[in-house]
Structure formats: structure tokens, C-alpha cells
Amino acid sequence: MTPIRLLQGRSLALLIQLAACASPSWAAPPSSGLDLPGFDTAVRAQDDLYRHSNGGWLRTTRIPEDKAEVHGADMPAVVDQRIRSILQELSSRPQPKGSNARKIGDFYTAFLDTAAIDKAGLAPIQPLLAEIAAIKTPQQLAAWAGRAQGQIETPIWLWGGFADFMNPDLNRVMAWQGGLGLPDRDYYLKLEDAQFAQTRAAYLVYLGQLARLAGLPKPVELAARVLALETRLAQAHTPLSEARNPAKMYTPKTANELMATAPGFDWQAFLAAAKISAEDKVTVTQWDTAVATAQLFSELPLADWQAYFALRSLDAAAQVLPQGFRAAHFAFHGKASTGAQFEQPRQDRALDQVKQALNEALAQHYVARHFPASHKQRVETIYQNVLAAYQALMAENHWMEPSTKAAALEKLAKYRAKIGHPDSWRDYAALEVRAGDAFGNHQRARRFAWEHKAAAAGKPMDRKAWPMSPLEVNAFYDPMGNEIHLMAGILQAPLFDMQADDAANYGGIGATIGHEISHGFDNMGAQFDGDGKMRPWWSEADRKAFEALSAQLVAQFNAMEALPGRSVDGTLTLPENIADLVGLQIAYMAYQRSLGGQPAPVIDGYSGAQRFFLNFAQSWRVKRRDERTLQLLSSDPHSPHEFRANGAARNVDGFHDAFGTRAGDAMFKPAQERVRLW
């Protein structure tokens, strides 16, 4: 888990603590934490760890017709069910006017009221469409795009809340390439690919439907012009495998500097409308793309840009527009893009909308009910043990030069972790939510979220703030803060279970923690030091040694076929594959050390070591439609889940020891061929 953030580490002290961190005692014996009915015992773990752990579930599970994929442990569904209960509780009685509870209820109820949305027709969005139609000059066009930040993804879009790469104490806005209606540039540019062509054709139909439903003239012609414009944008885009290299992403510029170096687009008007100070710098992350995109603003007709922004706005707001828009949105974004056969229930989409609009207000209720202090304490113990294991592994490294190793250990000693939720919650007093105004609430909430980020730009970083909602089932590493974030939403079974034995928890959340810790030393995170500053602290020899080891992992994943004739992109997925491998390795070390020299119990017929790897594989349980897999292969920096499980495990000595693999087993890899990055 990644791109895609408080504990001071002391190596010696943590290593000493490991022996004392044995499993806590329960009134009842701990469970294995394994879903045994979901296993397929006809498949040996030595041949396919993923299918041994998940084959029964894969065989019997059907993907719901309103979904593109289904997870074995549907943690988002658990979070959503808990939120449903909170919403029912809050809406069952009157709430004080202006309170967060009242805003949550009014937002949710308005989104659910499709009869009112249908009755309102196009009236709510007509002023926005009129604004676009009234654009007369390039300056007005750029200003409109600036005001649209947070509401749609513009061709150059702003992402807030990040530290400056060279001055991590300063909050900086990033400018990213964007604005495509299809998942990735390949969908536009690989004309010979039949599956991409099919999705592209469906998208053209969808654009025409949006134009027709909005009453725009010549909808078929207009759709074709917009697709042609987006194709030009795609041609300017940097491939995703290259777009996330921090060394190439750091191009901080003021509006005046951008006007001079990336002409064709009125950066001054754009940034001013986005509420970014003229004196403040914006980090342009894909410079060549930004230059080319700026030029497109001057080359392409104003009428084409007006059509483009009108359709992008209709697409972004389709869920709060009349039924025709909602149906067209699902036909493309659901059925054509992901293979889903039926639309998600409106209540589920309402939950998603409320989570986006008032996430920390909801999270405050969630945490109070579902993430007590005892959970945080146990996760923190696992975190400390996994961090100490990495420190021990790093200290034993044989290929790093002494100066680089010393800097690496110093960086680890400065790691911080944010676990569960922030200590203080966001203020939503300035967000206006009106009963019965689904479209207006949607627009105001998105703008409110953006303006919150824009207001922080150019100011000192607030290290107490959380850039991601605690309700997200996610975790990530922030290289500029040198810290990992573990959201309350992800701290549940199978990754974390208070009733489960430590083997399962280390194989689940322990491996996740290790994954995020290791991001500080992959080919991207290693460009930042322990203070979060981008600088070359590796020697050239160390860099080349790491690249050679990484190349072995690239080759392994390039050979993995996810769909007939379509393999994993080992270069695109390299940072995540590194993190999966190293995270699993150090989590296993931490688990072994946590036993304090005592044997782990055998539970459900499996040893502690076996349960560790089985739960790791079980945590990746997912079943996807081919359309969704295709979409992710071209745009997702993560490998398909079965390869995340098997690909990491077959490179870890502990897996082979736990299951006694030997030559001839499909999972067997000779010791000398296993990738050992540290």
C-alpha cells in the first residue's frame, strides 16, 4: 500500500525489548486467526501458498453483480456496516443545528433522495455549465480550471498536504498530470489492443450520452472532439512506471516562473483561482508533461476545452444528477470498465459520499466504538518489534558501505508511526450542508476539502494532521515525514485480530507494517534521509548493488502471467514488490524474536511459522473480473494479489523452512536464487 505517513526508535533498546515482548495472555486460548474452510487442502502450500490458503474460497465465491471484485476479508464492508449503524443512530433522533451529526445526516439523506434529484433535473448544474459556456479567453479558461480544483481532475491538477522535498518542514502543493477519463494513457495510445479498443469505444458512447442528456448541441461530434483532446493529453503523459521517481518529480516553481518556462497556459490565473499565493511555489511532478499540456491549452480550440470541461463536470457529478446520468455513469464506469453487472445499492454509494465529505467527523464516532486504546497498544508493540527487526537486518547488511549503512540506521532510528487516528479532529464548521441539496452538498464538500489543503500551502507542516481518513482500509509511508500511517479501518481481521495468536497478527499487520517501513529504503523512499529531505545519501556503488538486486525481482514478476498473454509489469510494480518482500522478511524475524526463545504452540494443526505465512497469504484473498484485472495491470503499482503472496514468500528462507519445500515443488526456489535485498 502506497502513490500510491510517534515513536523515537532506539536500536539497542528495541532489540533488548524483543525478548520480553511475548504474546499477551487471554482468558481463553488464542485462535489461529485462519479461515480454515476457505483453504484448499488438495493444493499443497509447497506448490501454491495462495491457493492452499484461499482455494476453497475462490472456488465457491461468486462476485456480486454490482461489483468488479470481492475480497475474502472484506474489511471495507466491515467498516461500512459499522458506519451504517452510526448513521442510523445519528439519524434516529434530531441533531443540533450546525453540528457534525446534523451535517452527516443531512448529507446522507439528500444523496439518498433520488426522487428529489430527478425532480430537480439539470437546474442544479446549469449555472456551472453556463460558467463554462461563458468562457471567452485563455485567462478565463485557466481561472475556471483553478476554481475546479477538488471538484474534477483537471489536466494539470493540484494535490495538497505534502512536505517540500528539500525542506520537509514546509507544506507544499504538488501539480500532477491528469484529466483523463480512461484509467491510463495506454487506453488511448495502444490502438492495436482489442480490449483497450473496446473500453475506448464504450467511453466514446458514454461521452455522447453525457452531452445528449445535458442538451449540448451535436453530442456525437462533441464526444469525438473530447476524446481527441484527451488522446492529446495522453500523448503528453509520462508513463506511470516513470512518473513516480522523486528525483524527477521535484520542480518547484512560482506562477511567474511557470509562465516563463511552461508557456501556453495562464498559470497565474490558474493558481490564483485555486487559492495558491503568487509567492508560493508549486512542485510540478511531471515537468515534461506539464510543459506539453500547457502548450495544448494554447494549441487546441477554446470550444474543445469548453466541451471537455463540461463533460468532465457532468461525469464527476453524475451520481447527484437525474437517473439518465446515473445509468450512463454505471454503464461505463461499472460494466464496461470493471465488468460489474449491476450497480451498487444507493445506500452504499451514499456511505462513500459521506465518508469523503465528512470523513473525520464520521471517524470520530467510529474510533470511539471500534478502536479502543488496547488495540492501539498491541499494534504499537508489533510496530516496535518489526522496526527493531529491520534495524537488526540492516546492521548485518553485507553489501552497503559503512557510511551508507550508518545513515540507514540513523534513518530507522528517526522513524515515527501514526496508529489508528489523529489526536485531534478536523473542524467542519465552515462546511455548509443543506437538507435536500445533493448536488450543492457534493460541490461544496469537494471545494471545502481542497480549500483546507490550499490554506496550508506555504506554511509549516502540521505533523499532527492526517492526510488520509482513519476510515480508509489503508496504510502508507510518507518519505518526507519519515513516518508510517496505519488507519483504524485497516486494523481489523485478518490483518489484526485481538483474539488471534501472534503468528497470525505478525503475518498480517506485522507484514503490512514491515511493508510500509521498507518503503523508506526502496528505489523511491531511499532518495530521502531520516529528516525527510531528498538528498543522495547512498554511494554510487551501493545504488548499483541495490539496482542489481532489484533487477532480479523485476525479472521474476515480469514472468508472472495475470491474464492470457498479459504479464505483470515488474518495473511499474517494483517499489511495492520490494516492500512486500522486505516487509514479509522482517515481520517473520520480529515474530520469531517475539517468542523469546519459547516454541510457538501448534494450533489447528499448523505450527506458528506456518500460521504466519498462511495468514499472510490469506490476507491477500481476492476474486476479480478480468476487466478489473486488465485495468489494474496498466495503472496500479501493485501486483495482482496472488503474486504478492507467492512472489514474496518464495524468496523468504523462513517460508521454505516452515513448509520443508524441496526441488520439484512449484514454490521451491533454490537458496542462491532467492532475492535478498538486505
Q: What fraction, in percent, of the residue positions are helical? A: 40-55%
Give the tally of structural domains. 2
Query: How many H/I helices?
Result: 29
Share in β-strands:
5-15%
CATH superfamily of the largest domain: Collagenase (Catalytic Domain)
CATH topology of the largest domain: the name is Collagenase (Catalytic Domain)
| CATH structural architecture of the largest domain | 3-Layer(aba) Sandwich
Instruction: Count the E strands.
Output: 11
Alpha carbon gyration radius? 25 Å
Distance from N terminus to C terminus (CA atoms, Å) equals 21 Å
The main sheet orders its strands as: 2-3-5-4
Spans of at least 5 consecutive residues with low confidence? 1-27
What is the class of the largest domain in the CATH system? Alpha Beta
Describe the global form.
globular
Could you describe the 3D structure shown?
By secondary structure, the chain is of the alpha+beta class. The protein has two domains: 11-80 and 371-422 and 466-673, 3-Layer(aba) Sandwich (Collagenase (Catalytic Domain)), CATH 3.40.390; 126-338, Neutral endopeptidase, domain 2 (Orthogonal Bundle), CATH 1.10.1380.10. It contains 29 helices and eleven strands. α9 runs antiparallel to α17 and α25 (574-594) crosses α28. It is globular.
What keywords describe this structure?
678 residues, alpha+beta, Collagenase (Catalytic Domain), Neutral endopeptidase, domain 2, three-stranded mixed beta sheet, disordered N terminus
